[in-house]
Specification:
The complex is a heterodimer.
Chain A: H1 25-32, H2 55-60, E1 66-71, H3 75-83, E2 86-89, E3 109-114, H4 117-127, E4 156-161, H5 162-166, H6 170-185, E5 188-193, H7 200-216, H8 235-246, H9 249-263, H10 266-286, E6 292-296, H11 310-316, H12 321-326, E7 330-333, E8 338-339, E9 342-343, E10 346-349, H13 355-363, H14 366-372
Helix pairs in contact in A: 7-9, 7-10, 9-10
Chain B: E1 3-14, H1 39-42, H2 53-65, E2 69-70, E3 73-74, E4 77-80, E5 90-93, E6 100-108, E7 114-126, E8 130-134, E9 141-145, E10 152-158, H3 165-182, E11 194-204, E12 214-219, H4 222-241, E13 249-254, E14 259-262, E15 271-273, E16 280-281, H5 284-292, H6 298-309, H7 313-320, H8 323-333, H9 339-357, H10 368-379, H11 385-395, H12 402-408, H13 417-430, H14 432-439, H15 444-456, H16 463-474
Parallel strand pairs in B: 12-13
Antiparallel strand pairs in B: 1-10, 1-11, 2-6, 3-16, 4-5, 4-15, 6-7, 7-10, 8-9, 11-12, 13-14
Helix pairs in contact in B: 3-4, 6-7, 7-9, 8-10, 10-11, 13-15, 13-16, 14-15, 15-16
The chains are: A alpha+beta, B alpha+beta.
């Protein structure tokens, strides 16, 4: 995230020493609303995954009320699940991406972490809204934020996707069922639904995100900023060596994969794009029958911070990435899905641009969560 | 075997919008290097492209001027390639969903008949940075100038409808005329604001095979386009006759040696949809507004000049070739002057004078009204053609009225018969042998004697009267 005059290396040698020239729109809006920027935390390389990310430590240490992290496949929600705080990914397009050092433009956004859901809501109401500097945002349909503070209309129905539960092990299942029971206590009706294409989310994200990443990271050539290799006979060598020395092996693998689809297997990318549209429609259809969907947030034995291969990282984010594929808002509520010490988390997912009702449902559990965090 | 050439052209045209395609930087590539840049066109992390409405409008008008249909929806793709002139790693271009499709221009073929040449599609794209290689000195270095990076281009892709160099040259000329008329682009091959790539293949005459094509680049004038294609047709014919296969590759035209030679294969990368630039969705109202901005185009103008002014087809086409000149012509004719005379004066005197001065009509002090006054003086026999030409030339750079120039320069025509008779009698007396010749039947002598009389009158004599008097005196 660009803060003018601050180092902005996005956790990568490819941006070593790069100092942001402009404030991101989000930064401008937060400052104008009276927020104080206390510092930047470390992030995983180019915001992909959570290896090395220190955002939640700042919250736990009480140094800040809110942390913003790049959410490409669920980073904000999974990080929140790991430290007992709320994590929210807004609808795609309601927060300006201007000033975000992007990797996957069609999926990423600022995720918001906070101990108190009210702080997340305040932050969102400040940073969301049309920005002339980000023309990819829709012209209208922005959530009506004051509505979020109104009590939710009950009863409310939440859908659980059967195929999503199928991938959980016994302990995870128990924990998630505990979470669902807490939702029912709060007055929600749980309904089991089926989405036979659920396993496509992971493949679609993997193909589309890697292709976009390959394009986005093409600009890191080490010429004007970032690490520049001292070896090489000509400019081609210099590019290859600089990029080879800059990127870590995880991001390198991901970029290779994206380049493979771009250059060698474009039809597979087209299939992924078609499937993505199909998934958006399918989830929209489900939400025609229920008010929201409920997913677990993370897998017990797949630690996002230690994921070292593409497969591992997709295991760790398999439950959060669907909302990035569809652009829907998703809220991680902590301390509901607890079983023998594991909090696998509850994610509330609503229709795109329907961030307000989703947050107002979350508000019902705000006090529950705070006690534990 | 006799071969037929199949030619298609890909033409890049720089739009003359005031800003670049995706940022507010001035669209002036020629300024001091790296003056016109910002985070967007330098492709700094965190910047986002914003499509310029003006550039989009100019592109759409160009498409309409070439009879294309603007597509209801078009979108930008990332054309991936890695080269120092494109540090972003991809060029924003409309590969999958171009702005417009299915256009055409009419040209006059070698047989004098109108031939319609189809345009497959037109898409928008951003230009790349300019590389400057300094090879002299101890360490050769390459510098990158970003002034051109992100400036708006359209690429016009023709169908392979052309069959000979003449048609290709006429296609470029007509297309250039249309775009200049529209005011969307300067279109100078010499300055690189219009760049032509030609795809050429051969097939046995009478078949409709589509054979391997060769691309030829680097032609910096319309003539070079024709010459390069002609050369390439001969080269490929020789290859085929020798039994050598034609391989798909790109060749560079060398304007000095007048040959094409193979260049290193350009890597062509994939095109993936760009997620950051919104799709362009065209509304009915917007399209109507664009159509309303189209001026009367050369074809329509030629037809009107034929119909209303009774010009010959050649005169009509000449008078509609350039927008400024055609509007000037229209304005002069409206001052009640005979259209064919105006056309002839513009073609034989005004256009060559402008060419000599390397000026456009707008850059001179001549107005339609001032030009009309010179021609009416000529019509009324107040001055002769010679004087009219002199006055016309002076009007290009003088603020004086045509009447003042005529008075001061004593251009008024001598129509006084007594004065002319005296002059003619003197010439007849001084040239008895020529007079003798004429009377023996050598009619050419009349021209010689007329010339002497005109010279003696300092070109002010009324030529009609001169001839009448000579004829009377000599017979």
């Amino acid at each position: 995230m660009s803060v003018r005059g601050w180092l902005c290396d996005a956790g990568s040698l490819a941006l070593e020493g790069f100092v942001a020239l402009e404030d991101a729109t989000v930064v401008t809006r937060l400052r104008n609303a009276g927020a104080e920027l206390v510092g930047s935390s470390r992030m995983s390389e180019l915001g992909f995954g959570l290896a090395g990310d220190t955002a939640t430590r700042i919250l736990s240490g009480g140094e800040a009320d809110i942390a913003l992290v790049t959410d490409t496949m669920g980073e904000a929600r999974v990080a929140a699940a790991g430290s007992g705080v709320f994590g929210f990914k807004p609808s795609f397009g309601i927060v300006s991406r201007f000033g975000l050092v992007g990797l996957v433009p069609s999926m990423e956004c600022y995720g918001i972490l906070g101990k108190r859901l009210e702080d997340i809501m305040d932050t969102l109401s400040v940073i969301a809204g049309k920005d002339k500097d980000d023309p990819s945002m829709p012209d209208e349909g922005f959530p009506d934020f004051p509505v979020t503070r109104k009590p939710l209309k009950m009863p409310c129905t939440a859908g659980v996707i059967k195929e999503c539960l199928d991938i959980l092990d016994d302990r995870e299942c128990k924990a998630f069922r505990t979470g669902l029971a807490r939702l029912e206590e709060a007055g929600l009706t749980i309904r089991e639904m089926s989405l036979s294409d659920f396993d496509l989310f992971r493949a679609v994200h993997n193909v589309v995100a890697s292709v976009e990443a390959s394009s986005s990271a093409g600009k890191y050539d080490g010429v004007r900023y970032g690490h520049r290799s001292s070896s090489g006979k000509n400019w081609n060598d210099m590019y290859l060596n600089s990029r080879g020395e800059s990127f870590g092996s995880l991001i390198k693998t991901f970029l290779f994969q994206g380049a493979y689809f771009q250059f060698e297997n474009y039809p597979a990318f087209e299939v992924a794009c078609r499937n993505r549209r199909r998934l958006v429609r399918a989830v929209g259809d489900l939400l025609g029958h229920v008010d929201l969907l409920v997913f677990p947030t993370r897998r017990r034995e797949h630690d996002a911070a230690r994921a070292a291969t593409i497969n591992h990282i997709y295991d760790a984010f398999s439950l959060t990435l669907p909302a990035n594929v569809t652009g829907q808002p998703s809220l991680h509520v902590p301390s509901l899905a607890l079983h023998s010490g594991d909090d696998i988390g509850v994610q509330l997912i609503g229709l795109r641009l329907e961030d307000s009702p989703l947050l107002s449902i979350g508000l019902k559990f705000s006090s529950t969560a705070q006690g534990v965090a | 075997m006799k071969y037929e050439a199949v030619i298609g052209l890909e033409i890049h045209v720089q739009l003359n919008s005031s800003t670049k395609l995706f940022c507010d930087c001035p669209n002036r590539p020629g300024d001091e290097p790296n003056r016109n840049t910002c985070p967007v066109c330098l492709w700094i992390p965190g910047a986002l492209p914003q499509l310029s409405q003006e550039a989009l409008e100019k592109a759409a008008l160009a498409c309409l001027a070439l009879n294309c249909s603007i597509q209801p929806e078009s979108a930008f793709d990332q054309k991936v390639y890695y080269y120092p002139d494109l540090p972003k790693g991809f060029q924003l271009s409309q590969h999958h969903k171009p702005l417009a499709r299915n256009g055409w221009v009419d040209i006059v073929g070698e047989d004098g008949r109108i031939k319609r040449l189809r345009i497959h599609h037109i898409h928008m794209e951003e230009d790349v940075a300019k590389l400057v290689h300094e090879i002299e000195g101890k360490t050769p270095i390459s510098l990158v100038d970003f002034n051109r990076a992100g400036t708006p281009l359209i690429e016009i892709v023709s169908e392979a409808d052309m069959r000979n160099p003449h048609e290709a040259m006429e296609y470029v000329k007509t297309l250039r005329g249309q775009l200049r008329y529209m005011g969307s682009a300067e279109c100078s091959l010499e300055q690189g604001t219009l760049r032509v790539d030609a795809n050429i293949s051969l097939r046995p005459q009478g078949t409709d095979e589509l054979n391997t094509k060769v691309e030829v680049k680097n032609m910096n004038s319309i003539r070079n386009v024709g010459d390069a294609i002609a050369y390439e047709i001969i080269r490929q014919t020789e290859c085929l006759e020798k039994g050598e296969p034609i391989v798909l590759h790109t060749r560079l035209w060398d304007p000095e040696k007048r040959v094409t030679s193979p260049m290193r294969g350009k890597f062509s990368g994939p095109c993936v949809p760009d997620p950051s630039v919104p799709r362009i969705v065209v509304t009915h109202d917007w399209l109507k507004e664009m159509q309303g901005r189209l001026p009367e185009m050369p074809g329509q103008k030629t037809e009107r000049f034929l119909r209303e002014y009774g010009l010959t087809p050649e005169e009509a086409s000449n008078m509609s070739l350039e927008r400024d000149l055609s509007e000037f012509f229209d304005a002069v004719v409206k001052q009640d002057l005979p259209p064919r005379k105006v056309a002839s004066w513009m073609t034989t005197h005004l256009v060559p004078a402008l060419r000599d001065r390397n000026q456009t009509i707008r850059e001179t002090l001549l107005t339609a009204e001032r030009f009309a006054r010179v021609l009416s003086m000529l019509e009324k026999d107040m001055i002769n053609a010679h004087a009219a030409k002199e006055v016309l030339l002076r009007l290009l750079s003088s603020k004086e009225t045509p009447e003042e120039i005529v008075e001061k320069g004593r251009f008024r025509q001598v129509s006084d018969t007594t004065e002319l008779e005296a002059l003619i009698d003197r010439i007849i007396a001084e040239h008895p042998s020529d007079v003798e010749d004429f009377r023996k039947g050598n009619a050419k002598v009349m021209g010689f004697l007329m010339g002497l009389a005109m010279k003696a009158s300092q070109s002010k004599a009324n030529p009609k009267l001169l001839k009448e008097i000579f004829t009377k005196r000599l017979n």
